[in-house]
Backbone:
């Protein structure tokens, strides 16, 4: 049985069995849960469908958050992708950004989402994988299977560091989401298990120290836009790994560093809304707009 205590354990097991990480994980989980791989696949496929529906909801023109502070970001980015011919990043990436924003917007509207790994970072993994499925035409089964790789990497991060902004800042949420998405993307592109690990490490290292400072205590500003940024990091980390660029610092050491950095962050930068962007004059005015004056 897998312990999910290190990325090295997962990559070594996959290499030893000459399988993908998702293949060894689904078999391990089926044995542990006294189920079958196909039953677990069907359950994961349902989660993927929820992600697709969250994108559709978040891309509606009149989508608004419960607070009224945000809304329509997914629609605006999709419209921009279409009318600009892809903007600066190209059609594929601008559409992917739209999906990340859309899922985050769905969450802010109290819609149904998959916390991947958290609600605050829910747009990154769906934005990456749905783009591969819908725009790159990757087989659905392969995309759903890659979610097992993402899940396994997420379990390691949760066991060895944390995935909550209240514990480790936004690096623990959007950082973790970008890391597991990068690993899944590499597997989808038929990269090796070791390259999955490299992508994970690169993604984490590029978000170390990212603080959690939600305006008015709501997972909207700047959280929604950080999901879009996290998606870009996931794709770039995956491409670097696939190009043969190593993380240099092993993924497990990157995770440990993330834990140390998170523990060093002051409480004002760990989801309390007492520091960072949440403490700016404009943020205070937005807070009053939603909740009134203290």
Residues:
């Amino acid at each position: 049985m897998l312990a999910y205590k290190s990325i090295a354990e997962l990559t070594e097991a996959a290499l030893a069995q000459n399988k993908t990480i998702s293949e060894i994980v689904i078999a391990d989980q089926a044995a542990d849960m006294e189920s079958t791989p196909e039953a677990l696949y069907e359950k994961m496929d349902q989660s993927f469908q929820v992600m697709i529906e969250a994108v559709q909801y978040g891309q509606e023109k009149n989508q608004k958050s419960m607070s009224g502070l945000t809304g329509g970001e997914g629609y605006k980015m999709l419209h921009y992708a279409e009318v600009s011919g892809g903007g600066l990043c190209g059609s594929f990436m601008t559409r992917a950004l739209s999906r990340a924003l859309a899922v985050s917007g769905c969450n802010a509207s109290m819609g149904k989402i998959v916390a991947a790994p958290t609600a605050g970072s829910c747009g990154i993994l769906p934005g990456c994988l749905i783009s591969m499925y819908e725009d790159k035409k990757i087989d659905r089964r392969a995309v759903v299977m890659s979610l097992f790789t993402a899940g396994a990497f997420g379990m390691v991060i949760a066991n060895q560091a944390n995935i909550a902004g209240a514990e480790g800042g936004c690096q623990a949420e959007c950082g973790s989401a970008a890391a597991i998405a990068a690993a899944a993307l590499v597997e989808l592109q038929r990269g090796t298990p070791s390259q999955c690990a490299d992508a994970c490490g690169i993604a984490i290292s590029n978000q170390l120290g990212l603080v959690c400072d939600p305006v008015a205590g709501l997972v909207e500003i700047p959280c929604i836009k950080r999901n879009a940024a996290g998606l870009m990091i996931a794709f770039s980390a995956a491409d670097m790994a696939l190009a043969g660029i190593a993380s240099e610092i092993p993924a497990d050491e990157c995770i440990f560093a993330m834990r140390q950095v998170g523990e060093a962050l002051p409480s004002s930068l760990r989801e309390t809304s007492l520091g960072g962007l949440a403490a700016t004059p404009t943020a205070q005015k937005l807070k009053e707009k939603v909740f009134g004056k203290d």
Summary: The radius of gyration is 18 Å.
